[in-house]
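Page 47, continued from p. 46.
Same chain as before, 97 aa.
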Amino acid sequence: MSPNEALQLIKEPLGYLGYEFENALLVNRILVETNRHPGLIHIFCHELIKHMSSRHQGRVGSVRISADDIEKIRRDPEVRELICDRFDINTKPGSTL
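Result:
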């Protein structure tokens, strides 16, 4: 996936939900963590949305995603396992995913 497509896959859905990044480097952290792989981006952002919505319940308007929010998802053992599992599925010989 091209860098621009991966960036769009992250920013557009989160933007529609009212989330903004404190700075552009935070989006790059997600790109690096997921190696711009659409399935891994989906996992990371899904978990980020769950985290943000539980942290900011009831808040109306834009919510800023911080470096701490990204780090929390990046270091979460369950997220790491989901990402590793997805990567393993995609790298097995004969896999069509």
